[in-house]
Amino acid sequence: MVAFAAFLIFPAGCADRASSGPGVGHGDPTPPAARSTDLPAGVVPAGYQGQVRGTITVLESPDHGPQLCAMVAQSYPPQCGGPDIDGWSWDDVHAESANGTIWGHYTVTGRFADGLFTMTEPAQPPQPPPAEDLAASPCPVPAGGWVPPDPDTATAAARGEAMRVARQSDGYGGVWIGWLIPERQITEYTADDPSLYVLNFATTGDAAALERELRRVWGGNLCVAPTEHTEAELNRIANELMELPGVLSASADTVEGTARATVWVATEEIWRQAVQTSGEDVIELDGILKPID
Fold this sequence. Notes:
The strands form 3 sheets. Strands 2, 3, 4, 5, 6, 7 and 14 form a 7-stranded mixed sheet that branches. Strands 1-11-12-13 form a 4-stranded mixed sheet. Strands 8-9-10 form a 3-stranded mixed sheet. It is α+β, with helices and mostly antiparallel strands. The chain is built from 4 helices and 14 strands. Helices cover 15% and strands 28% of the residues. It has a domain at 135-226: 2-Layer Sandwich (GMP Synthetase, Chain A, domain 3). The chain has helices spanning 156-167, 207-215, 231-241, 268-278; strands at 14-16, 52-61, 64-69, 84-86, 96-98, 101-113, 116-119, 172-179, 197-203, 222-226, 247-253, 258-263, 283-287, 290-291. The two termini are 27 Å apart.
């Protein structure tokens, strides 16, 4: 995957909707022997009754009891809404509180069914996400490494012009920054040094022709890679995913060339509905709570 700095993420269209949606444990009329096993990693089969785990904010306010929070309003105290939690105890955890609201960030384990999360283990301190094998670019590293061919034309203005040219091209699939330094070293100033990153573009059109056009304006490290779907197609699919029950948010992931939907638990039911019209190659379900059984 590619590492990003917040100030240099170029987001595609995105939509969000607060919803607890249908959860694991809904009745499934399909006999177990007939259920499909060709599901992506992380998608649980119909009728899954096992445990799930995630690192997430838990919040209780004067308006509701303890709930899981997929999205938190940055007020003080914070606000959110999500599935209720059965078996939660604030006595077991360190928490913040203000004006009758209590909250914290934890790793929780339990079962999720019918919009209710039932604890099966005590909450734990938040676990850091697993380290990713970051890649700066889908293109092979040039002989001699990534070295800007013309640093004088690798300015912020030139980068903006390159993005403008690419977005106006046929088959535009997206743009992203691929860092050549560890994520912890990325600051708001690292973008001023073109030797520290690769400017990546995706296209369904003629990649070689687009690269020639971009080289006329951009002298920094550059990769133009083929992709199966334009950014506009991915945005359209993401908007369609937002219509599915259980989808919390959806957006185009132009780095992976997919439309990514965030759900509480990635279930076969949601997966089957998502790929019915768009195809399996373009859909990713991102479950906040991951199966562990």
